[in-house]
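Hi support team,

I've been running sequence recovery on a batch of backbones for a student project. Most finish fine, but this one hangs at about 90% for roughly twenty minutes before it completes. I'm not sure whether the input is malformed or the queue is just slow. I've pasted the structure tokens below so you can try to reproduce it. Let me know if you need the job ID as well.

Thanks,
M.K.
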């Protein structure tokens, strides 16, 4: 076994939620307000001199703003940094010719502010692993005479022990739509296997198939959300039948629903990593879903969020990606995130991109080469090709990889990758009887 230092994010629940939630709410709202002030400032500078300020310029400019002192200075700085990153991301998309990309929006729902994530860096938190407590600093505006910090009692998963961890670098307070939770960002030394595979697999995360996998050798797998959908429907109905939305019974149902969801994500990520080990995969390529977050900030979550009875938020995908990374690392499998740009619009066989409606009953049909593929698998294959083009010639530089792969594929007309495999992925279902994922034909439900 070899040793490797990696960054890990551990999620923890807050045991004294009731005592701290008002204070965390204030910080979360303050972060949204500061975001909006930054957003407005950027608009003004942009209108005046046609220039988008960088985060350090933004920080220098807003440091004396009253709202800057609502949070610890490092936390405020991080909000403006996120804003600048979001602008850079959008600007990059525009530069690449994506004219429909929207700039990051204001964080507002009518007159209300959403609870933004608040990040605490080294000077902003104090961790007491003996008593499982962490002190989170407030900004000077929100300090009261008797308390200038929030004392959270946390509970990590049983297999995580923060006292054994070399360094906790950041703490984030994250609102999950139900309650606040803490994310500890840590540097950890892990043991990794020394014989990782060399193949790649592309993963497309979505709301019909939670995951579609396209392997390098051409086979594909689908993981539909059947079980979560049924679960959500069942629990939503029971919650709706509760007399009082804040009652003990309703709270318990919410907790059960959320625990079952977490279990599903754990089981699925574990299953995918096991499949990767079996298939000799060394690199998992996942679409970066930050574009979805931007849409949500604009208040229009498009096709995401509510989907039928399923209410999946982008943090669920983030969390799943974290879990996948965590489990992959132990097998020395790398998880790479790439932009999802054009991955649903392009044909993974010939590379032809089109803006027209991409799918017909879940199939991607290419007018150019005639390939027919499951739309999610086509997306996954495009994602995979961003890192490892099939049949690529050696020494092509990364920016050319995708197009040269397509040329190569175009040349090999023997049909080994077109039609067939992309259209007929094998489907794995979550089997409630056994609690594991199994091929569709083996699941009785
Ligand atoms: Zn094509």
């Amino acid at each position: 076994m070899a040793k490797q230092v990696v960054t890990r994010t551990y999620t923890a629940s807050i045991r004294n939620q009731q005592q701290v939630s008002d204070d965390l709410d204030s910080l979360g709202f303050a972060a949204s307000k500061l975001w909006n002030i930054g957003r407005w400032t950027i608009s003004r500078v942009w209108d005046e001199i046609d220039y988008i300020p960088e985060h350090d310029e933004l920080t220098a400019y807003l440091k004396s703003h009253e709202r800057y002192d609502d949070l610890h200075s490092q936390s405020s700085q991080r909000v403006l940094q996120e804003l600048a990153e979001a602008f850079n991301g959008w600007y990059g998309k525009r530069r690449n010719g994506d004219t429909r990309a929207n700039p990051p929006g204001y964080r507002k729902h009518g007159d209300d502010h959403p609870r933004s994530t608040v990040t605490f860096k080294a000077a902003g938190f104090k961790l007491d692993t003996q008593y499982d407590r962490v002190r989170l600093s407030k900004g000077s505006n929100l300090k009261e005479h008797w308390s200038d910090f929030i004392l959270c009692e946390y509970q990590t998963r049983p297999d995580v022990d923060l006292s054994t961890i070399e360094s906790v670098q950041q703490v984030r307070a994250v609102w999950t739509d139900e309650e606040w939770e803490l994310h500890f960002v840590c540097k950890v030394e892990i043991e990794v296997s020394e014989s990782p595979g060399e193949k790649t697999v592309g993963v497309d995360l979505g709301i019909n198939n939670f995951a579609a996998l396209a392997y390098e050798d051409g086979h594909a797998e689908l993981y539909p959300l059947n079980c979560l959908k049924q679960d959500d429907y069942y629990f939503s109905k029971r919650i709706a039948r509760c007399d009082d939305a804040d009652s003990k019974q309703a709270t318990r149902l919410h907790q059960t629903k959320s625990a079952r969801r977490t279990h599903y994500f754990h089981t699925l990520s574990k299953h995918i990593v096991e499949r990767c080990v079996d298939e000799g995969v060394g690199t998992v390529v996942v679409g970066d879903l930050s574009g979805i977050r931007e849409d949500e900030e604009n208040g229009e979550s498009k096709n995401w969020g509510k989907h039928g009875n399923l209410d999946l938020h982008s943090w669920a995908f983030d969390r799943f990606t974290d879990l996948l990374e965590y489990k992959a690392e132990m097998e020395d499998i790398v998880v790479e995130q790439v932009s999802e740009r054009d991955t649903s619009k392009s044909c993974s066989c010939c590379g032809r991109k089109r803006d027209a409606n991409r799918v017909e009953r879940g199939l991607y049909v290419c007018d150019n080469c005639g390939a027919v593929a499951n739309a999610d698998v086509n997306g996954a294959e495009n994602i995979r090709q961003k890192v490892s083009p099939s049949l690529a010639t050696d020494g092509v530089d990364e920016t050319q990889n995708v197009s040269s792969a397509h040329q190569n594929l175009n040349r090999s007309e023997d049909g080994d990758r077109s039609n067939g495999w992309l259209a007929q992925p094998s489907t794995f279902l979550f089997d409630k009887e056994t609690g594991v994922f199994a091929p569709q034909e083996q699941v009785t439900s």
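--
Follow-up from support: It reproduced on our side and the slowdown came from queue contention, not your input. Residues 347, 349-350, 352, 366, 368-369, 371 surround zinc ion (CB under 6 Å). No action needed from you.
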